[in-house]
């Protein structure tokens, strides 16, 4: 019998390509499959169809966190794939905070989110980490 393998837990899907300057790079273009790339100039590009889970924890999935959560998830995915060094995690967390502030989040709330990812985010960025278990069906 044929089976499919999939991951549950993704809540959102990009419907057009998105690019943003994250302010750092490895000096070479790196990427994960056809979905996410980080240029040698620090431009993160996320392709149409990319799925992510939004903000983690008890954070409301509001417009002021959506773009930041997308970019942050992509940067952590690059770290999990070994394309970005773990030393980039603090910069990635700072990008999350910066984008949330740009999108209208209060300074207090953006700082609380930053503090939370600094405290608890390392396992999600670790090389080889799987954010969701692989499931099979049937």
Written account of the structure:
The protein has 138 residues and is α+β, with helices and mostly antiparallel strands. It has helices spanning 63-80, 89-102, 107-120, 122-125, and strands at 4-7, 12-13, 18-21, 30-32, 36-38, 43-46, 51-52, 134-137. Strands 3-6-5-4 form a four-stranded antiparallel beta sheet, covered by helices on one side. Strand 4 (30-32) and strand 5 (36-38) form a beta hairpin. Helix 1 (63-80) packs antiparallel against helix 2 (89-102).
Question: Runs with pLDDT <50, length 5+?
Answer: none
Instruction: Spell the H/E element sequence.
Output: EEEEEEEHHHHE
**Mean pLDDT across residues:** 93
How far apart the termini lie comes to 9 Å
> Based on CA inertia axes, which overall geometry fits?
globular
Structural class: alpha+beta
Total number of distinct structural domains = 1
Helix residue percentage? 25-40%
How many whole angstroms does the radius of gyration measure? 15 Å
| Proportion in β-strands | 15-25%
Query: Within the largest sheet, what's the order of strands?
Result: 3-6-5-4
Number of strands: 8
Q: Can you summarize the main beta sheet?
A: 4 strands, antiparallel
Q: So how many helices? A: 4
